[in-house]
Amino acid sequence: MSEVEETIKRIQSHKGVSGIIIVNADGIPIRTTLDNSTTVQYSGLIHQLAAKAKSTVRDLDPQNDLTFLRIRSKKHEIMVAPDNEYLLIVIQNPNAV
Amino acid sequence: MSDTEGKEVSDKEKEHSEEKEMDTAKSPKPRKTPPSSGKSSPKKPGSAKSGTMTPKSPAGSRGRATPKSKGKREEIKMETPAPEEEEDATLPDHCEPIFLSSKTQTIFSCVCDSDVTKENRFKIIPKAAILEDLHNRAGVCDFHPIKNKIIEYPGEEFLLVYDRDFKFGQNFYICFSEETKEKLLHPPKKEGEVVEGEGGVPGEEAEDTTVYKYVPPQSKEWVSHGSEKEIKEESVVEMRRRLKVSVRRKRKLFGAPCKFTDRNVGDAKDGYVECTSYKDKTFDLQKIELDKGIQAIPWFMDSGTQTEWKYPRNANTQYYPREFSQHEQQEILKKKQTGTFMDGVCPRFQLALQQNEIMDVFFNDWLNLGEADNTFGSKADNHLKEYQSFADLQFSKEKKITDIQWHPTIKGIVAVSVAEKLTFDERIDNASKVIMTPSLILIWSFTDPINPQLFLEAPDDIHSFQFCPSNPNIIAGGCQNGQLVLWDISAHADRLKQPRGGNRNKRATVLPGFEDPNALKTPIVRYCAVSSIENSHHAPITDIMWLPDHVEINRMGVPQENKGFESCQIFTCATDNCILVWDTRPTKGPQQQQQGAKPKDKDGTKNPIGVPDTFKHLDLTWKPMLKVHLHKSEPGGDHAPTKFSIAEKQGDRGALSKATDGGVPDKEASVTGGYFQSGKPGSGREKRTLQTVKTHFFVGTEDGEVVYVDWMPQKDQDTGKIQTPKPDFYHTMHDGPIMTVQRSPFFMDILLVVGGWNFTIWKEAVVIDKNNPSSAESLKTLNVAENDALKSGPILQSAPNPIRMTSGFWSPSRPGVFYISKVDGSVDVWDLLDKTHEPSITQSVSPSAITKIYPHAVSHKQHLLAVGDSSGTLHILEIPWSLRLPAPNEVTGVANYFEREVKRRGFVVQRWDFREHEKRELEAEAKKKAGIAPNVLLTDEEIEYRLKLEYQAYMEAEGNFLRELGITKEEEPLPQT
């Protein structure tokens, strides 16, 4: 099993994790644990949001950078970790915890 | 003196003007002078002087008349107009007029007005040419008359002059002398003339006398050039009367001698008037200098135009997300970069995920505060308040209320069925009275607490009834005698909808003295169908229920889709061990017969007044389509049902989505209107089977049993008959007839059963229908232990209450609350989340026993509880908000509670097995202690040996007994085994 798979499995083992998506810099999903339509929607929208958040942080302080983005909603929490090359999205349902 | 001077001036002017006139008239004048006169003067070769002087003649005469210096000026004036004209006046010397014909003109190229014109009148013609022409044309030649002169002419060339105006009688004249020719071609200069003229004045006068000839001036027509206006202005016209001055003198002074004396001018003051100059102030104004600049600039104008930019724009776009193929994904995932990224990012996620796992930081405590006030026992008002009560003196007094139903759509309408308070024996005794009094369902409106809005008449006392869920104008009721009755109140629906009792309004429109005595009366609606008495129940119908509108069942009890979404099937149960299923749609055979017979019926016997024929086809012939007979598992009678409850709910269409196709859908049945008449019951071939609809249902019996049975008939293994299978289980938990079996509106599988002195709550076991494949899913969630637990009994059983319970009902809004009515006229409110060992509230409502309760949510803010008692009064109570509003997460709380109870049951069952086992062990122990049981376990042989010993001992004892009686001999040996 590859490194990536191992990491995914490790994250998946946490309670309430309902989905993990790896997205490349262009917002194209590479690896997902969700169904296709959900993945496409999440990757497209979250990718944009993360880019915006990243630019906001950069604009505020050029030496700063976004490392982690947590979106708390009624139903779940969406966690995003952006990087130069990739974007990791994890969806967790905290109520299920 | 001055007078004469002025005269002179005027004379001069006059002269001048005369001269002018002369000038203007001059041009025509010379023509009249005879050519001979002109001819005479220029004949002298040196007469350039005289030639020029000739035209001066008139001026000369004038000059003579007024010999003044002005004459010179006038001469110049006269000279300028036309010097040539003077020449024309007379034919020059040595010239001869000649007429040249057009042919001659062409020959000599001197065509009039083309080669020669007025201005260019001269033409030189060689003498030879003329001679040649004379020679050629001879007498025809125009030069022929002057042939001699031409031949005599000394020069080589002739000068031909064009005489356009025929001054000399012909169109040309020809010169015969070189001098004249020279003079004509080169006329002398004008200045030279003038100088010569001046110079030669004395000589001139002498010559003039000879030439001068007086020509009287001719007056011409006067032409106005505006001078008359000037003249008019100049002339003096008398505008006013003349002043008259009379000068008088004393008479004695006339002719008196004058005395003149000398005196000094300086002394006389009256001699003169001096007007000295002075500075006039009026003209003392100083000019003010003013700088003023004017500049002409072009007009400026601002204007603008804008054109709309029409550019191609996308009206629609369709896109699809970019995706990597499987292979590409693998490639990227294999990259080292990806791995490092994941490693780097993973800890952050783990941190966040763990945080969430530890606690919910966003939990809102405020929302969960103040919950304490909502629970019972606090100061908040939590009592049922009397809202209204209904009692009809004639029809409901001294009767008991058997059933209550709220109108499903119209607010504030509640229907109540009443029955005589008689036991079976009393009923038989008072049969005549019972038959005479009508059996009614009363429909009350909140607007009128005195008079019911409507009476529904029934053949016998109604014990249970229900509004049709899809059409609230249809009501089905179950009679005391086992018949099923149907009413159609469509005609009176308006009456129920009216805010005020309809009967009151009528009074105003009716004339006095003509009031209809029935106008104020509440209308009585007769039933429109009643079931065939032979095929009906043989005991009072205790419970009735319309099947939800999306389901229908066929003759084999298989639930199917109802395409029309109109409820048309009714379940009824009575204590004759049967549950019957009825269909309001006509059966195929009888209906056709009936339809054939219908027209005749209409001609002859009509329906009783006011009875709609909605169910005409059913009246008195109605048979149940399915009979569920409740056999007991073991011999000893059958179950006598009083109440039942099926799983399917009205309005819950979930079952439809999971339906499987049973064949081609029967369009006709659903499309053709009048569902009561159309459609065939039980013809299940076209309709989809609803797999998820449970055919198992709970039945409460007269003996206090709760029976769980499948209504679908199965082939009995013993008899081979198709009949209702034996119940899956039944439990006797109640010590009286079951009065209520009701499912919770929040949990489909939770039932409240009320009967006798206690109530129980059951959870339906999904796992039991093994035939139903769709329940396989739920099978996983329930393990076998739980399943046993579900079979084992209720999940909650109340302690027996000192007072018998008569009815129960779940709260429509709170999942954990239900109401229980009791015979002492009180209502218990139970809240499962508050306490389960005693009711949360007990409230006395009525002095007599309560027979039925029915809570109803009228609106979001008003929930009413209808309570019917055994004295015929219907109490409407208002439910306090604490019982109305569910606590947050109440559903989950109650669900958890039920889950815990299920587990407890599982534990109980487990303990039962355990106790059973333990009991056996204990018994064995006791036996062992008493010495009966051996310490060690024996083998079979040993047991056999022991049995033999026992048998021998028995035989010995028998022998002794017989011996004592003397039946056998003393010493007779016993048979050996």
From TrEMBL, chain A:
It is found in: Cytoplasm, Cytoskeleton. Residues 4-92 form the Roadblock/LAMTOR2 domain. Gene3D superfamilies: Dynein light chain 2a, cytoplasmic. GO terms for cellular component: cytoplasm; cytoplasmic dynein complex; microtubule. GO terms for molecular function: dynein intermediate chain binding. GO terms for biological process: microtubule-based movement. Keywords: Cytoplasm, Cytoskeleton, Dynein, Microtubule, Motor protein, Transport. Pfam families: Robl_LC7 (PF03259). InterPro entries: DYNLRB1/2 (IPR016561), Roadblock/LAMTOR2_dom (IPR004942). PANTHER family: DYNEIN LIGHT CHAIN ROADBLOCK (PTHR10779). Acts as one of several non-catalytic accessory components of the cytoplasmic dynein 1 complex that are thought to be involved in linking dynein to cargos and to adapter proteins that regulate dynein function. Cytoplasmic dynein 1 acts as a motor for the intracellular retrograde motility of vesicles and organelles along microtubules. Belongs to the GAMAD family. This is Dynein light chain roadblock.
